[in-house]
Amino acid sequence: ASDVYKRQADTASAHKFCAECAIRLCSIGRGLQSCGQCKDFPCPTLTRSIRSDTPSYELLLKIHAENAKT
After folding, report:
1. Is the backbone peptide bond immediately before 42 cis, with ω within 30 degrees of 0?
2. Any alpha helices (H) in the chain, and if so which ranges?
3. Does residue 38 contact residue 32 with C-beta atoms inside 8 Å?
4. To pair with 42 at 20 to 30 A between CA atoms, which of 8, 14, 21, 30?
5. 67 pLDDT band (50/70/90 cuts)?
6. What pLDDT is stored for residue 22 in this prediction?
7. Model-level pTM?
8. Which residue has the higher pLDDT, 43 or 15?
9. Residue of higher predicted confidence among 68 and 16
10. CA 51/CA 15 separation, integer angstroms
11. What are the backbone angles phi and psi of residue 28, rounded to the nearest 5°?
12. CA proximity to 64, closest of 46, 21, 22
């Protein structure tokens, strides 16, 4: 896994609320490591939960760009 995925996973494991996170559950349901990999990125589930001016959103943008290259 890339450093981007590792950082996201490390961050997610540090927060108990992630077990119920709609964004995380959606990614898992689609078989993805991150919603940044999703063809529907950014979706309403994401944009309702994370502002586009946050480090978390910036990380997802990097994942999305990385995924688009493959």
Report:
1. yes
2. 3-13, 22-29, 44-49, 55-69
3. yes
4. 14
5. confident
6. 87
7. 0.68
8. 43
9. 68
10. 18
11. -60, -45
12. 46
Q: Which residues contact 61 (CB under 8 A, 6 or more apart)?
A: 36
Dihedral-angle region of residue 53 (phi above 0 means left; psi in -120 to 50 means alpha; beta otherwise): alpha
- The single-letter code of the amino acid at 27 is S
Are the C-beta atoms of 37 and 56 separated by less than 8 Å?
no
pLDDT class of 6 with cuts at 50, 70, 90: low
What's the alpha-carbon Rg for the chain, to the nearest Å? 11
Angle at alpha carbon of residue 8, lines to 1 and 53, rounded to 5°: 130
CB of 5 within 8 A of CB of 62?
no
